[in-house]
Amino acid sequence: MNTYKIHEMYIDKLDKKMLTIKNKCEKYGIDFSYEKLNEVFERLEDGYIHRFIEVLVNGRVHHENWEFLAKLERMPNDELYIKNHSDEDLNEFKNVNIICEHCNINRFRNNSFLMRNTETMEIKQLGKSCVKEYTDGLNADNIARYISYMEELEELEKLSRSSFSSTTYWYKTKEILAVAIAITNIFPYVKTSRLEGYHTIENEDSTKNYVLDLYCHINSKSTLRFKELKKIKIHDSLQTEANEIIDWALSVDDDSSFITNLKNVLNNEYCLIHDVGIIAYAPIAYKNYEERKRQEELLKLNKKKSQHVGELKEKLSFSIKSHEMVASYETQWGWTYVHKFTDNNDNVFIWKTGTSGQYDEDLILNGTVKEHSEYNDEKQTILTRCKIMKV
């Protein structure tokens, strides 16, 4: 039983090779199987992080003088059930953890097998795959053939550390984000590409490229841009900001495609080069979110400030602090425009009229109170028969 680390580029090739080996083993009467265990990330001599798949290959040799005793099964209530096929008292195994004492691979198992050496009387607990090595031997010729197959796997493992594509370089997500924060604090954000006519053109000075230049030193020539980027220092505080952005992205209640994709990327410890673009925009997205939240809080505060002014049919006069036309709609008498004003006390006034226009500050509004209303928790005084006058 051997474990190999195969570069992700060669996994399809590995699957084909494993099928070939399996068919050959069946021809020669050799029990053979392989299993993908987990993924691991390693930084190689080229300076980049690469992703490997650990593969467990089973089928090597057997151990003589072993006999089968019982099978341990995990029940739904997590208790162990012993299917005893011997006269041996095995109650001592009722409270053990289900493990494999041959490969010692630490993983969750639902069952295991108890084998006993007939010479030493040693009892071993074995996993489903490993138990075969204790019950069925191989002759010398078949072992030689098997070794030749394993040598092919060893060659593939060596190839995995010497030949690969830049598209399979992996980067630490949090470190990429910290670099993006540092760059967007100094340089304005630039999209990865732009449209020119019917063609999409890559922006050489995009924020994504800036991040890759600084983090990976892809453009190592002494260009003015690279000289400027080298002045940027990645401080520990940027890691703190990166954690804040990750926490925000993973918890924010937003099902937009951008946030969904951002969550998928930031939820992983490592990322690929095609993920750098969305990470580079994450600091801007977070700042925009914080600004929208600040504006919403400010709006709520202003809404609380607004009070009803005057009595019904009372004539009012006040200086205009702000104005905006918030709506317009067509009626059988023509178009109606809805104007929203505030006075120096942040009270809100609404005037519906057939006249559009923009009214600047330093003007006086005279009008009659038509009613008092409330919209989205904001108290509004509705006016009629209004006139705008200069101060």
Notable characteristics:
single chain; 391 residues; alpha+beta; 4 domains; six-stranded mixed beta sheet; four-stranded antiparallel beta sheet; 31% helix; elongated
Fold and architecture overview:
There is one protein chain. The protein has helices at residues 11-27, 140-159, 173-184, 207-216, 224-230, 236-251, 257-266, 276-305, and strands at 2-7, 33-43, 49-58, 66-74, 80-84, 111-117, 123-126, 170-172, 193-196, 199-202, 270-272, 315-319, 322-331, 334-342, 348-353, 363-375, 378-390. It has 391 residues and is α+β, with helices and mostly antiparallel strands. The protein has four domains: 2-61 and 138-166; 67-131, no CATH class; 170-293, no CATH class; 315-390, OB fold (Dihydrolipoamide Acetyltransferase, E2P). The longest helix has 30 residues, at 276-305. 21% of the residues are buried. Strands 12-16-17-15-14-13 form a six-stranded mixed β-sheet, covered by helices on one side. Strands 5-4-6-7 form a four-stranded antiparallel β-sheet, with no helix packed on it. A three-stranded antiparallel β-sheet has the order 1-3-2.
Low-confidence parts lasting 5 or more residues at pLDDT below 50?
137-144, 218-224
The biggest beta sheet, please?
A: 6 strands, mixed
Compute the gyration radius: what is it? 36 Å
Give the distance, in angstroms, between the N- and C-terminal Cα atoms. 92 Å
Provide a count of the helices. 8
What string gives the helices and strands in order? Answer: EHEEEEEEHEHEEHHHHEHEEEEEE
**Structural class label:** alpha+beta
Number of strands: 17
Mean pLDDT: 82
As for the number of domains, it is 4
Oligomer: single chain
**Shape, principal axes of CA atoms:** elongated
Q: Biggest sheet, strands in spatial order?
A: 12-16-17-15-14-13
DSSP helix fraction: 25-40%
Strand content: 25-35%
